[in-house]
């Protein structure tokens, strides 16, 4: 029996989650006749396994798939509840099922070959990449690989926190939610000794909403801890859980760290999603950057360029995030205080564009001036000292 020769493709998408699905849809929009595409993932994603929330201007390719959107959001602290007008932006909710369905349609339109295999190694010789399964067998050879699997950072960060959460999709037989606005951050929840907690509400209608409890902290909670946080937040909202039905439960863990991620680890392997630097260190928001980078990859392929997206966020924003994480981790600044001042002293659209990496240097200076100056200055000095120690250690 002869040795099986692995198939050859131009582009292999490894991982069929959110980042991979967005790339497939973006490639299909460009047409790209003759492009040989493969998708390698042991699981065929479908159904509602997660919810993404993001902000942007109305319109675009995501519009038909949205579950809901809001032009007003609420940011609440124990002292004050602010209702913010996001115009010209809006906050939007997208559930996973239509994203996966669109990706499956894109695979068909592209004529992509599907390999239901778990990937082990990506052997990049500079001219092409051999994609191997976990037993070391060659699955295929690709001119380029887009890898959206979770990967660790290149080296540990000075601060390593997590955004971790649990949400309940709650249904009521009577109107209990306000579908005219979302609750973006509600800091009335009990704050952990080391970290930040808040609740939020994404209402699809006056009788159906996602209610979630979230922490930014270094350590995960137990199942009982998340449920207790959710019950406590529901009580703050005045919701009678005995009169509501939990239709679905969503859990998640997202890294919040100043550690560097290798978005281009070898000549012909490009990483997407969190492993490609799409997660904002100061908030854990990822979706907007994933969507932006998917469009950049597809445009590059259509133009005959390497499918390498731009960095998700400017370097100065990554530095500002590192300083904020250090300030929170040291206890120099409380998370509720930080976000309260940020939204109190800046237009909401400026804050949200900053979190998307879209503000100018002048706007960034205005945002920095609105933060607690003395403790943030101390955090800046601590961050600089940490960077110097890291450089000396690596020598």
Task: Tell me what the structure shows.
This protein has 395 residues and is α/β, with parallel strands linked by helices. The chain has nine helices and 17 strands. The chain has helices spanning 18-29, 96-110, 223-236, 287-302, 315-330, 335-344, 348-355, 361-369, 373-394; strands at 7-14, 37-40, 51-56, 68-70, 72-76, 81-85, 90-95, 113-115, 119-124, 129-133, 138-147, 160-172, 182-186, 196-205, 208-217, 244-257, 269-271. Strands 1, 2, 8, 9, 10, 11 and 17 form a seven-stranded mixed beta sheet that branches. Helix 1 (18-29) crosses helix 2 (96-110), helix 1 (18-29) runs parallel beside helix 4 and helix 5 packs across helix 9. The radius of gyration is 22 Å and the shape is globular. The mean pLDDT is 91.
In brief, what are we looking at here?
This protein is of the alpha/beta class.
Structural class: alpha/beta
What is the share of helical residues? 25-40%
| Low-confidence blocks of residues | none
Order of helices and strands: EHEEEEEEHEEEEEEEEHEEHHHHHH
Please count the helical segments.
9
- Tell me the radius of gyration: 22 Å
Distance between the termini: 52 Å
Largest sheet: 7 strands, mixed
Name the beta content range.
Answer: 25-35%
What overall geometry do the principal axes of the alpha carbons give?
globular
């Amino acid at each position: 029996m002869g040795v099986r020769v692995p198939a050859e493709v131009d582009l292999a998408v490894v991982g069929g989650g959110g980042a991979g699905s967005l790339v497939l849809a973006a490639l299909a929009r460009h047409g790209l006749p003759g492009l040989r595409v493969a998708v390698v993932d042991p699981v065929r994603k479908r159904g509602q396994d997660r919810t993404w929330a993001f902000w942007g201007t109305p319109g675009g390719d995501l519009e038909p798939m949205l579950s809901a959107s809001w032009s007003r959001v609420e940011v609440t602290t124990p002292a004050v509840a602010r209702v913010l007008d996001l115009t010209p932006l809006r906050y939007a909710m997208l559930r996973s099922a239509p994203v996966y369905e669109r990706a499956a349609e894109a695979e068909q339109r592209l004529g992509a070959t599907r390999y239901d295999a778990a990937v082990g190694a990506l052997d990049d010789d500079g001219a092409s990449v051999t994609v191997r399964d976990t037993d070391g067998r060659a699955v295929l050879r690709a001119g380029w690989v887009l890898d959206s699997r979770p990967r660790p950072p290149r080296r540990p960060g000075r601060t390593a926190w997590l955004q971790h959460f649990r949400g309940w999709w709650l249904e009521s037989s009577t109107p209990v939610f306000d579908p005219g606005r979302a609750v973006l951050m509600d800091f009335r929840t009990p704050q952990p000794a080391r970290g930040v907690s808040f609740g939020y509400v994404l209402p699809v209608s006056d009788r159906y909403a996602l209610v979630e409890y979230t922490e930014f902290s270094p350590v995960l909670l137990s199942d009982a801890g998340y449920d207790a946080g959710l019950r406590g937040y529901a009580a703050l909202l005045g919701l009678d859980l005995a009169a509501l039905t939990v239709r679905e439960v969503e859990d998640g863990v997202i890294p919040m760290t100043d550690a560097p991620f290798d978005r281009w680890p070898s000549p012909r392997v490009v990483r997407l999603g969190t492993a490609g630097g799409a997660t904002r260190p100061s908030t854990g928001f990822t979706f907007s950057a994933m969507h932006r980078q998917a469009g950049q990859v597809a445009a590059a392929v259509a133009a005959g360029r390497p499918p390498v997206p731009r960095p998700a966020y400017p370097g100065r924003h990554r530095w500002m995030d590192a300083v904020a994480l250090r300030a929170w981790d040291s206890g120099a600044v409380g998370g509720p205080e930080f976000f309260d001042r940020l939204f109190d002293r800046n237009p909401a659209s400026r804050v949200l564009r900053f979190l998307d990496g879209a503000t100018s240097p002048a706007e960034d200076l205005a945002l920095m001036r609105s933060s607690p100056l003395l403790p943030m200055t101390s955090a800046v000095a601590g961050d600089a000292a940490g960077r110097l120690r890291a450089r000396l250690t690596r020598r």
